[in-house]
Design brief:
Layout: E1 3-6, E2 17-20, E3 26-30, E4 40-45, H1 49-62, E5 66-71, H2 74-83, E6 88-92, E7 94-95, E8 98-99, H3 101-110, E9 116-120, H4 125-133, E10 138-141, H5 147-187, E11 217-223, E12 229-236, H6 243-259, H7 264-278, E13 286-293, E14 299-305, E15 310-314, E16 317-321, E17 325-326, E18 338-342, E19 348-351, H8 354-357, H9 369-373
Helix pairs in contact: 1-5, 6-7
Protein name: Response regulator
Domain Response regulatory: 41-157
GO molecular function: phosphatase activity
Amino acid sequence: MGLHATHDRSREQPESTWAFTDDRELIPLRAPVTPAARSLSVLLIEDDRADALLVEDLIDDAASGVRLVWARSMAHAEQVFASARPDCVLLDLHLPDASGMDALERITKRDATVPIVVLTGLNDEDFGGTAVAAGAQDFLVKGRVQPDVVRRALLYAIERKRAELMAVDLDATQLRARENAILERGLSASPLLLDNPGVDVVARYRPSREHALLCGDFYDVIQTPDRTVHVLIGEVAEDGPHEAPLGAALRIAFRALTLAGVHDVARMHHLERVLRSERSGSGICATALTLQISPDNPRLKTIRAGHPGMLLHGGGTVEWIMPPAGPALGLRADDWPQHELELPDDQGLVLVTDGLFQGFSSNGSQPLDEDGLSRPGESGDCIR
């Protein structure tokens, strides 16, 4: 059973109503709130009633719109935390059930995001600095506090804690970004060619995902000791976080298989197995196109698994070539046709993924598509 009482003041101020609970702990039922200011909830953890009333006077003199809740022990403060999070805590370091850094540690363990202002006595002023070093945002010395100092301390503690949390989030975000960049850089392709390889390789990789180094597109160029150049280009048919790792897994598998002497259709079967084992869902597949360029033969071998064709350019002409194709990887195909085509010395090949020809022409009216790629320069077409 509780008793209600009104705390009287001689100064002209708004009235605060308090309730005494069975264990004599003081909790306000109503606090003045001004429309112009956001209401702040402050939890005062103080075992001395006179000091608690002094703090209430200081806060009422300093600012309106502050709801003060008094907890006379750490146990009661933890009950308050269980029901609502205060905007700031005023903490006395000498409580019946918690003292010194133990009191501070119990609050931070309960909620590491809440700002804390420590209350110290005249004889342990130096202890306030120790508390700040241990995690408190500020400290006040009882008997030397003015209303404006209390107000500034509360606002400063709240803003300082907010800045600390933002800095922690920023550091974590930057760390994840650095880790992702290192990972993606390690997974990105770097052509593996011998000295004087006999071919020129120019690569352009531009992920559509903002701030990314990798996407679901993948490629690789490897030259084996017999000077044969093996080329792979492909695309994972999935939008999401799993596309880049799966594309990297296929590229790495292609390089390992090639260096191990596994080529042609046998290599495609192994890539099919890798994709099925690494994909995150049964419906995910990947397109791929491989080239095998011999140093002493103008004819090259190509295998196409659901991937777009390629551009043959030279002598002022550009031709879109579509070799025979088999199903994309992941569709449990049994075989893929192998096709040979001639590549004269004065001509070159451009391998692309569908993101290139799905772009728009310069007037922005229609997709560029395969026909647009085969006629650059005509009608002012360019990729946007």
